[in-house]
Write a structure and sequence with these properties.
Blueprint (H helix, E strand, L loop, with lengths): L1 H127 L5 H16 L5 H18 L3 E10 L2 E10 L3 E6 L5 E5 L4 E4 L2 H15 L21
Antiparallel strand pairs: 1-2, 2-3, 3-4, 4-5
Helix pairs in contact: 1-2, 1-3, 2-3
Amino acid sequence: MLNNRKITCLISSVFIYAVAGLSTQVFAAGINEVMQEGESRADANATAQKQVDSVADQTEKIVNDYRAVTKVVDGLKVYNALLQTQIRNQEAEMNALSESISNVALIERQIVPLMTRMVDALEDFISLDTPFLMKERTERIARLRETLERSDVTAAEKFRHVIEGYQIENDYGRTIEAYKGSTEINGNQIEVDFLRIGRVALLYQTVGGATTGAWDAEAGAFVELPPATYQAQVADGLKIARKQVAPDLLVVPVPAPTRAVQ
């Protein structure tokens, strides 16, 4: 009977130990599963966080790109508005040029006769003016007429030459000039020094100053002047015109003003 109890107790102890060992193994297995599950969740969270960070970076990049594109678009809008204004101005200029081109033929038909009349008037003026530098001035008129007849010269260029001729003649009235030439004295052609004072006086003096004369508009010829009165004055005028001495007052014969022909 006693032996049976011992056996029963031994079996019970073995069973208890077996159950305890099994429970420990089951508990350990549960702990491992929990830890593995935690690690899996941590890895999943880390992966999800990386995805969130990646999406956030992409979103920020997209926002920055959008802002940059918006600035470019705003600049293009301003630039396009400026181009539109320029295009409108160019179109207005094109219309004005087209109108001017259509009127070129009419203007040219009117300006060519005008230039011819201007050259004729300039030639008449020279023929009636004090006869200084006549060769140079008549050659200029001949060149102007030749220019007007040329087909390879534009109307604008022809008009410029005509105006230039008028300007040269106008400048003669405001300058003093000395130049060499020849004139008839006592039936002989003599080399002399001419002194032109604007258009009010044209005088001459032979080399050495022996003879001094002036243009007489009423007589239409040069007349000899008294040496004692004008010889020194004309000599000084020649030096002033050549810039050999400082400007000074001169006493020269000047024709009296006459009433203009109506």
